[in-house]
């Protein structure tokens, strides 16, 4: 294959991978939209979900937002029952903010299936031969990309 065709093939693969990512994200994006969270609220929830609870100061630093801005975000999330405030274990004056238990449970039990459902449904509808081709193709692409990582550019 002539060398000049590689950029065109790479561009086509990139377009296909972008389209696949968009399709896979649709259920997640629909669920986020259903929750009617603003961008900053989504960011705060994501940071809090990855922690066991943070002070307002810590959360402000993580988000790169002013203390007063984050305080308002947390007030609105608490009013909707998405987060809870907890007194510190060692210092009762220190308040930690954490994701509400029912939200944490939802994220652990339901969220993973939202992320995988479009892929699982597509594979369920595929023939065994198509499933094997997809698996073989993605494994090959991953292997080629990983092989090229050490040199700064894939072959």
How is this structure best described in words?
- The protein has 155 residues and is mainly alpha-helical.
- It has a domain at 34-103: Winged helix-like DNA-binding domain superfamily/Winged helix DNA-binding domain (Arc Repressor Mutant, subunit A, Orthogonal Bundle), CATH 1.10.10.10.
- 70% of the residues lie in helices and 6% in strands.
- The protein has seven helices and two strands.
- It has helices at residues 5-35, 39-49, 56-63, 67-79, 101-109, 111-125, 128-149; strands at 83-87, 95-99.
- Strands 1-2 form a two-stranded antiparallel sheet.
- A hairpin with a 7-residue loop joins strand 1 (83-87) and strand 2.
- The two termini are 14 Å apart.
Give a quick rundown of the structure.
The chain has about 160 residues and is mostly helical. It has a domain at about 35-105: Arc Repressor Mutant, subunit A, CATH 1.10.10.10.
Secondary-structure map:
Blueprint: H1 5-35, H2 39-49, H3 56-63, H4 67-79, E1 83-87, E2 95-99, H5 101-109, H6 111-125, H7 128-149
Antiparallel strand pairs: 1-2
Helix pairs in contact: 1-6, 3-4
CATH class of the domain at 34-103: Mainly Alpha
Described by the principal axes of the CA atoms, the overall outline is elongated
The strands making up the biggest β-sheet line up spatially as: 1-2
Individual helix count: 7
CATH fold topology of the domain at 34-103: Arc Repressor Mutant, subunit A
- Helix fraction by DSSP (H/I, runs of at least 4): over 70%
H-E order: HHHHEEHHH
**Number of E-type strands:** 2
- CATH-scheme architecture of the domain at 34-103: Orthogonal Bundle
Radius of gyration: 22 Å
Main beta sheet: 2 strands, antiparallel
Q: In percent terms, what proportion of residues is strand?
A: 5-15%
Class of secondary structure makeup: mainly alpha
Low-confidence stretches: none
- How widely separated are the two ends? 14 Å
CATH superfamily of the domain at 34-103: Winged helix-like DNA-binding domain superfamily/Winged helix DNA-binding domain
Average pLDDT, rounded to a whole number, is: 87
